[in-house]
Amino acid sequence: MRIGLIPSLMMSLLAVYGTALPVPQSTRPSEPQVTLDGRWQVKFSMAGLEKNLTVICMPGGVASFVLLDTAPDSKPAGDPLPGTWSQLTNNRVSFSSEVELPIGTCCREKGTLILKGRLGSNNSISGKLIFVTSIDEEESPYKFHTIVGSFTATRVLK
After folding, report:
1. Among 28, 45, 127, 144, which is least packed by CB within 10 angstroms?
2. Do the Cβ atoms of 46 and 149 come closer than 8 Å?
3. Cα 109 from Cα 23, distance rounded (Å)
């Protein structure tokens, strides 16, 4: 009698607790994967400067940055600049490129523009940016001139 009771008891426990067991990753419904491939219209601001650019994301993390109003007299900067993009965990994304930007009212600086943000549900990205130049700055703990800001991006639909 005891031998028949044990399998019955185990079946009852599985029936009750079976839904609480973890579901293997392969059978869990996955969140839709948003890809960054395509064009993104970016509006950014830093140190009182508000500018626009287009990031063109291609497969393999390759990107092109088209600076729309960063040349003198707020004109387009010319040829696209090479850049990179990556899609991180938790819908986080990152873009970067070497650019030249107007800083203040008189100067232009070359440096690395890094944008880090989070994908929104409506083909949008928002986040923070940092512009790092190679100019020595003694007061900075990193000895480089850095400017921080924010950005928003929307996918350009064809």
Report:
1. 28
2. yes
3. 53
Torsion from C-alpha of 143, 145, 88, 54, nearest 10 degrees: -160
Instruction: Give residue 124's domain range.
Output: 38-156
How far separated are the first and last CA of the chain, in Å rounded? 72
Residues 6+ apart with CB under 8 A from 10: none
CA–CA distances in Å: residue 89 to residues 37, 86, 98, 114, 118: 17, 10, 24, 17, 10
* 84 three-state secondary structure: strand
pLDDT at residue 16, rounded to an integer? 45
At residue 52, the pLDDT reads 94
β-strands 144-156, 49-58: how paired?
unpaired
* Mean pLDDT by groups of 10 residues along the chain of 158 residues: 52 47 50 78 93 95 93 81 94 95 81 96 93 79 85 92
In a domain, 91, yes or no: yes
**In-domain check, residue 33:** no
Rounded-to-integer distance, Cα 15 and Cα 57, Å: 49
- Structurally, the chain folds into a number of domains equal to 1
